[in-house]
Amino acid sequence: MLEATNALGNAVLSTGGTLTDPSAAAALAVGLAALGAGYAERGIGSAAVGAMAEDDDLFVNGLILTVLPETIVILALVVVFIV
Amino acid sequence: MSAAGSSNPEYVVARVRARRGSLYGDEEYRKLTRMGPAEIARFMEESSYGAEINALGSRHGGVDLIEYALNRNLAQQFEGILDWSEGSLYDLIARYLRKFDAWNVKTVIRGAYTDADQSAIEVDLIRAGEFDDRRVRRLLEADSIDAVVEVLEDTIYGDPLREAYAEYEETDVLVPLENAVDRAFYERLLSGLGNDEPTRQYEAFLKAEVDFRNATNALRLARSGADIDPAAYFIEGGELFSRGSLARLARNLDELVEYIADSQYADELGPALRELEEADSLIAFEHATDRALLAYGDRLGTVHPVSITPIISYILAKEREVENIRAIARGKEAGLSADEIESELVIT
Questions:
Q1: pLDDT surpassing 60 at residue B307
Q2: Across the interface, do B19 and A54 touch by the CB < 8 Å criterion?
Q3: B83 CB near a chain A CB, below 8 Å?
Q4: How many C-beta atoms lie closer than 10 Å to residue B5's C-beta?
Q5: With helix as H, strand as E and coil as C, how does B221-263 read?
Q6: Which residue from A22, B6, B82, B233 could staple onto A83, CB 3.0 to 4.6 Å apart?
Q7: Predicted confidence (pLDDT) per residue in B111-153, tens digit
Q8: ipTM
C-alpha cells in the first residue's frame, strides 16, 4: 500500500500536477478555511438568532460571536501573501 | 414544525436557555408562599405569565385564574418549542410532549362520561401536545365516548381505544380506556430511539421515569391491599421491573421496598424509602422520585450543551414550576401555612 502511494506521489510530481503549484495550494488552503468558517458560523448564527428572539439586547453580542470564525479566513489569507 | 430535514438544536437551545433564566428561583418561591391568591396572580402578571393573566383575568378569578394561566402558558411555551424544532429534534421532543395529548384524550373521555359541558372540558385541556386545533375542536364537539374514539381513529390511540371500548361497553368503567391511552403513549415513547450519546442519555431519563411510575403504582397497590391485578397497570419499557416481577412484588410491601432499595436508584430514593417504612407515607416517596427526576434533568442540561438534552431539561423545569405554583395557590386556598406549603414544593 505504502509503496503504491509513493509511486503515485512520484508520478504526480514528475508530471507536474497542478497541486504542486504553490499558488494553487494556497488557494486551496483559503478555500478550506472559508468552508470551516462557514460551518462554524452556521451553528453560532442560528444560536445567536435564537437568543436575539428572546432578548433584543443580545444583538451586538450575537453579531460579534457570529463573525468571530471569520478570523480563520483572514489568517488563511496570510498564506496567499507568503507563498 | 416538521420531522423532515436536519435538526437545529443550536437555535432551540439558545431560546430555551434564555427562557430558563426567567424561571422562578428559591427567592421567588419564598415570596409566593407568603402571598394570597390575588397577590400571586399579580406577581405572575409582572413576570413571564403576564400575557396569560391579562387574557384570562376578565373571565376567571382567584385560584382558577392562576391555574388556567399556568396551563395556557405551559401550552404556549411547549407549542413554541415544537414549532421551532426540525428534523429528528422534533421527533424527540414530540415523543415527550405527547403526554399532554394523552392527558387531553383522558380529560375529554371523562368529560363525555360525566356529560360535562364543552367549555368546562375546554378549560381543563393543556394544548401542548401534537394535536392541532382542528382535532382538539372535534374532540370537544364529540358528545359520546364512541364519537371520541372515532375522532382519534387515525392517531396512535385509534386501535388501542377501539379495543378498550368493547371492554368499556361491558363493564361501564373508564379504567380500560385510560389504560389504553397511557399504554399507547408509553409504547411510542421508547420505540426506535437513535443511538448517539445525547439520545442515550435522554432514553435513560425516560426509562427512569417509567420505572418510577411503575414503582409508585406498585407501592400504592401494595399498601392499599386492593384486589387488583398489578400486571394490568404495568408500563412497558422500564428497566427495574418486568410484568412478572411487578405482579409478584406488589403483593408484599416489605419485599417491594427492599427490591427498590437494592436497585440502581438506591442513592436517590434511599432516604425516602426509610421514611416510607417508618411513617408509612407515600407522599415522601413520590416527592423523592420527582426530585430525582428533576436533578437528573438538571444534569442532562449541562452534559451535552448542543443537543436534545438541555431542551428536555427546560421542559421538565418548566413543568415543575407550573406544578409548584399550582401547589402554592391551592395550598393557600385550603388555608395551609407557609411551612406546610414549602414542604410540598419540589425545588432543587
A1: yes
A2: yes
A3: no
A4: 10
A5: HHHHCCCCCHHHHCCCCCCCCCHHHHHHHCCCHHHHHHHHHCC
A6: A22
A7: 888 888 888 888 888 888 888 888 888 888 888 888 888 888 8
A8: 0.71
**Under 8 Å between Cβ of B235 and B210:** yes
- The yes-or-no verdict on residue B318 having pLDDT over 60 is yes
Q: How far is the alpha carbon of A57 from chain B, nearest alpha carbon, in Å?
A: 12
**Whole-number pLDDT of residue B148:** 84
**CB within 8 Å of B193: residues ≥ 6 apart:** B92, B199, B202, B203
Whole-model pTM? Answer: 0.82
Distance, CA of B51 to CA of B79 (rounded, Å): 16
CA-CA-CA-CA dihedral for B235, B237, B239, B245, to nearest 10: 40
Those residues with Cβ within 8 angstroms of residue B196's Cβ, 6 or more apart along the chain or in another chain? none
pLDDT recorded at residue B28: 86
Give the residue among B4, B3, B7, B2 at the shortest CA–CA distance from B198.
B7
Contacts of B290 (CB under 8 A, 6+ apart): B320, B346
Chain B residues 289-318 with CB within 8 Å of chain A:
306
In this complex, the residue of B13, B19, B84 whose CB is nearest that of residue A47 is B13
Of B259, B260, B249, whose CA–CA distance to B223 is shortest? B249
Test the A interface: residue of B6, B11, B12 with most A CBs within 10 Å = B11
Which 3 state secondary structure label does DSSP give B86? strand
Structure-derived torsion over alpha carbons of residues A19, A20, A21, A24, reported in degrees to the nearest 10 = 30
Distance CA B107, CA B94 (A): 20
> Any idea where the domains of chain B sit in the sequence?
98-171
